[in-house]
Amino acid sequence: MTDRPKTLLANIDWISILLYTVLVLMGWINIYAASYDETHSSIFDFTQRYGKQIVWIGAAFILGFLILLTDSKFFTAFSLIIYALTILLLVLVLLIGDESKGARSWFEFGGIKIQPAEFAKFATCLAIANVMSRHNFKVMHLPNLLLLFAILALPAGLIILQNDTGSALVYSSFILVFYREGLHGSLLLMCFVAAALFVISILYTPFTVLVIIICATLFAHYYYRHSPREILRIILFIGGPFALFYLLKWLFDWSFSDFHALLGIYALLSIGGLYYLYKHKLKHLTILLLVSWMCVGISASVDLMFDKLQPHQQARINELLGITEDTKGVGYNVTQSKIAIGSGGFWGKGFLQGTQTKYNFVPEQSTDFIFCTVGEEWGFVGSAVVILLLMTFILRITKMAERQRSAFSRIYGYGVASILFFHVAVNIGMTIGMVPVIGIPLPFFSYGGSSLWAFTILIFIFLRLDSNRLQVFR
Amino acid sequence: MNKFGYRHGIIAAIIISVCVIYLLRLFTYQVVDDTYKIMADNNSQRIEIQYPARGLIYDRNGKLLVDNQASYDLMIIPRQVKSFDTVELITLFDVTREELEKRMATCRKYSPYKPSILFSQIPGEKYAYLQEKLYRYPGFYIQTRTSRKYNVNHSADVFGYISEVTPRQIEKDPYYSSGDYVGTSGLEYTYERRLRGKKGEKILLVDNKNRIKGSFRDGEYDEEAIVGQDLHTTLDIDLQDYAYKLMQNKKGGIVAIEPATGEILAKVSSPGYDPQLMVGLDRGKNYRALETDPLKPLFDRTTMAQYPPGSIFKTIQALIGLQAGVITTATTAECHGGAPIVGGRFMKCHWHDSPVTFKASIENSCNPYYVNVFRRLLENPKYKNVREAYGEWRKSVLEFGLGNRICPDFASEVPGSIPTQEYYDKVFKTKNWYSSYIISLSIGQGELLITPLQMANIATILANRGYYITPHIVRPTGDSTQAPIQKHVLPIKRQYFEDVIEGMELVITNGTGRMARVDSITMAGKTGTVQNPHGDDHSVFIAFAPVENPRIALIVYVENGVWGSRYAAPIAGLLIEKYLKGKISDNKKALEQRMFESSLVSTVTSTPKTPTHD
Fold first, then answer.
1. Residue A103: pLDDT above 70?
2. How confident is the model at residue B65 (pLDDT cuts 50, 70, 90)?
3. What 3-state DSSP class applies to A189?
């Protein structure tokens, strides 16, 4: 027992600690730049955001240290109790929490605001790890799937009631954990296709979406049949009539849209193809064709939702999906954010030299849109470094998860990686206009104590579990 | 258990591919594609606030009183400011170098990145000059908005003025931002929300030479400003003009009300000031001059001044006495140039027939008569003691709209005060008081404080024989933000009013109000004197006409006018004639001329006090 601190030190993953520290410090530098004001230049000015963030960071380090000193059995044994307590907090915040910006999601203790939704992430992660690590637990068993769904839906639902749908969507990231633990690949694929389709439909014109769907169908066709000749033939069948249509359109000055022409051609070809498939009893390809048309239908309906609906209905759907309401019209925030990032160039404008983020063109520049500051002041180089560091950290965590002997630790590790990945992908994605604007923070970078502490707890519990990997076999 | 270990690779691949897609996208935006760089470098955007024109203000006949004119502000964005020709600015705006530097420092302190106003309300010709030179001033631009233009050179106390918002106001109402104008007094303050409209926003593209290149995305994100709503006041601007003329070189106030509706026809605070002084570059200078003016033009003498009402209060005493049954119209009193009253004191009065009847007591404003009325009220055996009787009396007095603010249109209105029993408990250090302690209240002196507006309202109550409508100067529009206009009925029999009014008619025909008389118009009135410890007493006159079907009730009070009959009564008579007939009859032209010409502003010297009578 006397050498416990020594083994602890030796077994801690110092690479992770280093990555964590580097990311947090880079985050602070960018918060400083985003909220920089010539009249308050001392970094210890606690009336300013960067001054406050120093306090949050200091507290986060202490918190991480305390977690490393805690016996790892504490987290495994009390995981469900921690989960239950967090749920209780989420209920309480709905009843007696403070309201700000239309969301009732804060507790205030003497000037310090605590957001329980942030802490629900690690608690849920612990609960999932606890349940899934039980002996003979099989993911592909309906009651089990329902149980897992319930564990996620409970905090997610309560968070939606707080009007913070963005934070609730984070729980969807656990699909990666389930996949790792045996969820059928097709389910993951389906989720991905649905998500991708949704995002693509919002971002691109119907014509582009249709081209993407047809290409994907062809890709899948090749995957089943391995026949380049068939692919070539289909391309000719579609491309030929379309080229003809284009020629006619050019000659006679038609006003018929490309999208409808391509849709018609694809429909005719599909009907013909269906007959062919039926004759040759190609069941797989029939299903593929059906799925392809389902995708067309879904994308069209997503499109309908956003084009044909009244603005307030659109807004309601946006709200439902956790897409932040755009006060200055759809796309203003994203346009500003893209201008800020795009203007950074290869090397960036330099520390404190960004102009776009400073003129308040970019909203929420020190919280949700902090990546704009990175992009503008540090350019492509800086953005790439940040993305690569975050990616390395996430991959490092998955790799560490794989080396665990205990299922609990492994599952928890994957949970940590999935949550981080979701945050990074959605947050950076929205600043460069690839994902709808969903208000969730960028880990280690966004201003705010609750989110920093929540990520710190999430990660350090895993580091603590990892440091015991050689001793415990749970 | 680890049979799905191969899936680590797939998950890692998903993570890596998302990152690679993002990196490719970033590479396109930041390195390959120049669009965004050009947008950011050459075209910085400027969010220009679109200021709506404030609502206009009209009089009761639809005449435009308060209009708007274009005005220009010189704005700076401190961070964008490079070296510029300071001498030119200093000479153009006639300021010192220190003043300019101070202003720039204030702007920088507000925000280095956001625009602030350096000079506001620049006149047109300076704007034209500056507009051409502006390209040499990086970080400067001109913002257009409207400022007030007044079609009358008086009535500033009604309209009030607008000024820049204070940091506290910004904190309280997020609608405002630095440099916005907000109504600070008068109607501009009370109806700020209605008048201000709604600001809009225009996102402009500005090149590196500070020239506007167009609107961002064809104005897709612009927001139109919404013009403020107009105000329709109940003022009769011709009457108002005339009243100001009569009051020139005199200090005082006039409030005229249409009794049936409670609409304020005229409201004069003299000396006033030209509201246009509060607009333009010299606004600050003008304001300081007005503030230090010994005649206090900024002080609204109709709603902010409060005085003991003097003899006009006798009408209220008479009504309360009759209603309480302690006197009848047959009650008389002995008075020979005064009469001994309680506590062995002697209350002076002027010489008139004795014993004095009820009607004559009003006509002659007999002091001992009302001492008697008040004593009977206070010593009414119905009540335990004087204190309790006083409480009942006070309640009756409050019914006349005294001791409370009555006009919702003027936020600066003071409530006046009718002392409470507790107040006197403290003063007398006992709850067991005698009527002699407070006997001066009987003739409207003592601790009573009443505003001229409230005095006009007393005239209205008398004209209406027992009720008043909330006095107001803005026609209600059904807007929920406006205070409701209510009818207040007093618990006093109509007949008693008729009795008092008979006495008030005698004031005009035979008594102290003879100077107000107009042929062919029946009129009821009452003079009063407001004791002034600093100099000559103030002259007060309330009146309404025609007696049978009153169309106007008013108060005229002239500071240092000594007696009600000297200035207040003639002015009231002229106003009534002007309003009811539209012109002044020939036999009164001389009087009119005298009122125009007489000046009282130099007589602010203290003269020996005259006793309370008129």
1. no
2. very high
3. helix
**Sorting pLDDT into bands at 50, 70 and 90, what band is B83?**
confident
User: Rounded to a whole number, what is the distance in Å from the CA of A268 to chain B's nearest CA?
Assistant: 34
Closest residue, chain B, to A332 (C-alpha): B221
Q: Do A201 and A160 reside in the same domain of the chain?
A: no
Poorest-pLDDT segment among A26-35, A122-131, B19-28, B115-124: B115-124
Residues B575, B580: Cα–Cα separation, whole Å: 8
pLDDT, residue A334, reads 74
Q: List the single range of A9-18, B35-44, B85-94 with lowest mean pLDDT.
A: B35-44
Domain boundary among A320, A337, A367: A320
Q: How confident is the model at residue B336 (pLDDT cuts 50, 70, 90)?
A: confident
Instruction: Name which of A214, A213, A184, A189 is nearest A201 in CA terms.
Output: A213
Indicate whether A162 and A202 sit together in one domain: no
Query: What is d(CA B496, CA B507) in angstroms, rounded to the nearest whole number?
Result: 17
B112/A398 Cβ within 8 A = no
- Distant-in-sequence, close-in-space partners of A279: CB < 8 Å, separation ≥ 6: none
A190 within domain boundaries: no
CA separation for the pair B88, A292 (Å, rounded): 71
Are A230 and A379 found together in one domain?
no
| pLDDT score, position A411 | 94
Can you give the residue ranges of every domain in chain B? 46-232, 237-274+300-597
Answer yes or no: do A253 and A373 share one domain.
no
Residue of B nearest to A38 (CA): B112
Task: Give the structural domain span for A357.
Answer: 4-181+328-467
My answer on whether A400 and A273 are in the same domain is: no
Interface of B with A (CB under 8 A): 1, 4-5, 7-8, 10-12, 14-16, 18-19, 21-23, 25-27, 29-31, 33, 35-37, 39-41, 44-45, 47, 79, 108-109, 111-114, 201, 217, 220-221
Query: A31-34: which pairs have CB atoms within 8 A and are 24 or more residues apart?
Result: A31/A366, A31/A370, A31/A445, A31/A447, A33/A351, A33/A352, A33/A354, A33/A357, A33/A373, A33/A377, A34/A357, A34/A365, A34/A366, A34/A370, A34/A372, A34/A373, A34/A447
Given this model, what pLDDT does residue B608 score? 36
Residues A34 and A111 in one domain: yes
A184 contact B CB<8A: no
Q: Does the beta-carbon distance from A37 to B114 stay under 8 Å?
A: no
> pLDDT-based confidence at B605, cuts 50/70/90?
very low
CA distance B102 to chain A (A): 16
> What would be the CATH architecture of the domain defined by B46-232?
Alpha-Beta Complex (3.90)
- Give residues 25 to 44 of A whose Cβ lies within 8 Å of B: 37-39
Which residues in A lie closer than 8 A to residue B44 (C-beta atoms)? 355, 359
B469: closest CA among B258, B322, B178? Answer: B258
Nearest to A342 among B37, B113, B114 (CB): B37
| Alpha-carbon gap, residue A89 to A105, rounded angstroms | 10
Superfamily of domain B237-274+300-597: DD-peptidase/beta-lactamase superfamily (3.40.710.10)
pLDDT of residue A1: 43
CA distance B176 to chain A (A): 17
Q: How many CB atoms lie within 10 A of CB B607?
A: 11
The HSE-up count of residue B596 (CA atoms within 13 Å, CB side) is 9
- Nearest chain A residue to B8 by CA distance is A180
Distance from CA of B568 to the nearest CA of A (A): 59
- The average pLDDT across A283-311 equals 75
- Which residue has better confidence, A43 or B26? B26
Q: Do residues A338 and A250 both lie within one domain? A: no
Within an 8 Å CB–CB cutoff, is residue A344 touching chain B?
A: yes
**What domain count does chain A have?**
2
Does the predicted TM-score (pTM) go above 0.90?
A: no
Q: Does A137 touch chain B (CB under 8 A)?
A: no
**Residues A314, A346 within the same domain:** no
Q: How many CB pairs under 8 A join A and B?
A: 115
- Looking at A271, A293, A320, the residue that finishes a domain is A320
- Residue B216's closest chain A neighbor by CA? A332
